[in-house]
Amino acid sequence: GLFVTDYFTRTPRKLSPFRSFASIELFHFHIPEDTVIAVWNLITFKEQGGTFGDQCPDRSITVYFRSGAPSVINPLHTHFPRDTAVPGSFALTLTWTLPNRTTGVFNVTSPLPGDWFLAAHLPKDEGKISVKGLYEECQYLFQPQLIVQRLVNIAVLYPGHVTEQSMAPHNRSCLYKVFVPSYTSRVLVEVLRCRGAEGCPLWLRVRAKAPPLHNSTTLDCREHTPCQLAQDLPFWQHWYYVLVEKHPGVPGTVSFQVTVQLTDCSRPSLARPPFLPSSASMNMPHSFGSAGGLALGDNPPPTSPNDTKHPAPIPVTSHAGERCWPIRPTLRNELDTFSVHFYIFFGPNVSVPPDRPAVFVINLLPVLDSGGVLNLELRLNVSSLCGENVTVFGCLNHEVPLTSGDNTSVTCETESLAGFLLSVNATASLSRLRIPYPQTGSWYLSLRSLCATEHGFEPCTNVTAEVYLRAYLSPCINDCGIYGQCKLLRTNNYLYAACECKAGWNGWGCTDNAEAFSYGFQLLSTLLLCLSNVMFVPPVAIAVRSHYLLEAAVYIFTMFFSTFYHACDQPGIVVFCIMEYDVLQFCDFLGSLMSVWVTVIAMARLQPIVKQASVLYLLGAMLLSMALQMDRHGLWNLLGPSLFALGIMAVAWTARTIRRRHCYPPTWKRWAFYLCPGALIAAAAVLLYAFVETEENYFYIHSIWHLLIAGSVGFLLPPRAKPSRRLGPLPRRKGCGYQLCVNEQEELGLVDPAVASINSICTS
């Protein structure tokens, strides 16, 4: 056949350590129909500071693959919420082959067409809290590329039409496909009039959605006469691929005929009519590729009804599940993103008769609905059982309803079909099912009632059970509970939702409490972080006593907003917010930086130059507000203002030292008992904040940070300035009437009043 190669790539993305599904990187691909092989080229490389990260440690990268919807992964082996079905996926771990680059290859032969999703992440780390910009961080970038090879012009088989084929000696196999419409209960593929050098040396393989593999349903035509391969309960609205393969080492040409019969479950006594010219009459797609042909790439035979060879309609023996029941549709009501309710006409209470199942269909839109959670709830009305021991079983299957004719069967699976089982009875009247990241398409729910007896389950008589049915799509499971936050995430044009847990809770729905913080621990951590700010009371008292009223106001501002910010920032349920979180965070960060700024400016002793000191205070407040609005977690937000203030202080101290020709501050006691201890305490606080703080020790390390910073302020704040020895204005004496004595030279600001001779002008 003719092959076409397609190439797809994605932009490299930075990988993060795994904490929850919200921390993974998701990549979305689309594989076209008739693809025979898909090759993923997985490229990973390191970067550090804009260059190759040769010195970065090797960290394994885990990649997950799944068709139809994102993978539901659990690398931390946490517990899933109750009644949650976990679909499977394939995982691959990449190891490093070069210092800064590695490449992995993942091949899929005959992949399922449609959407494919790749999820990648790094292993979980120790949760260190690093200051942004302190050092160059190692980045691990991941870029997947996809190469697909697909066949074009695959011969199409039409139900009831006989296709003749001659397989030349150099040919190994012939590939066909047939479309299976809705309400089809059985697909029968038959090889007729097979003639070869050694009887019928052919293998017959059938597979849904993609070309057959070595482990697909197979029949050896040498051992079976007639050579018929049947598929019960086929997937509706999908292509089925038929591969006729020659045994190895068979000489000569092998000729045969291939025909397909589809059993219509609405008319189980007859097969589907032979090929009809109109594709709409069979609910088939309008684009067929090539019509039924002799070989891959050969011209098809005439398709007019007069030239079509087909056998007469044949009676079909009754098989389990060949009879189909009316399928009740559901009404889709979209409330929000991943918030969809499926309403049943004349529901939500449905009646399940004893003699037949009740079948419903739930349609999930492609791509749009696969990023949420499909929820199903059954509630039995016990009063409708009339005292009978009735159990209502529900089977949820994808793309085909499971309506077995065996009434005593309680399974929702066959050899080629897997489903989910729900059951309700008088003792357990409620049953739930949650499917995270469901595959899109049609989901069929079949409800049937059976009575429990000594010999197992048997059909009930004259009892119609009433069941409350609720089906809906939600972003997360139970909105992630009280210890989680449901986040809406986006990768390119694909939306999906995931839980981000807190307070030590884990799991897909934040329900795993193996490492959860207790209430007492949450209360203790909140009190430590809040009450540690009381350490600012001594610096406030010292500032007020030393007449540093502006500094005292800044310390009070910092203490207030730091206390209530940490009360609002807690991950658990011990949370108290007096205003919006963003406002509290901004005020806390601003107060902390302003405390450093005003303390260092006060140490510079600029009070005699009153106007310049006020300008610096106001300039610092404006610049710090601007910097925090740009980036609140950047290193230079703390380092820049601190270095600038320290520079002003150093210039002021140097000027005093040069003018006085003596070291400033002049006393060794000031250095030994105040400046050096305060500087050491502040340095210890910065080291703890930058290098020791992690997510696990945050509550007590950050509390120590509060204590140390407040303590350093108490040591570094300078003492009260001594009054100046210069003479002030002369006292004004009053006699009879008013007498104003003014020092003329002092009033004009011409000389220093301390050395000027007094020359007063008195005016009555």
From TrEMBL:
PANTHER family: FIVE-SPAN TRANSMEMBRANE PROTEIN M83, TRANSMEMBRANE PROTEIN 8B. This is TMM8B protein. It comes from Erpornis zantholeuca. InterPro entries: EGF (IPR000742), NGX6/PGAP6/MYMK (IPR021910). Keywords: Cell membrane, Membrane, Transmembrane, Transmembrane helix. Residues 499-510 form the EGF-like domain. The keyword Membrane applies. The gene is Tmem8b. It comes from the Eukaryota.
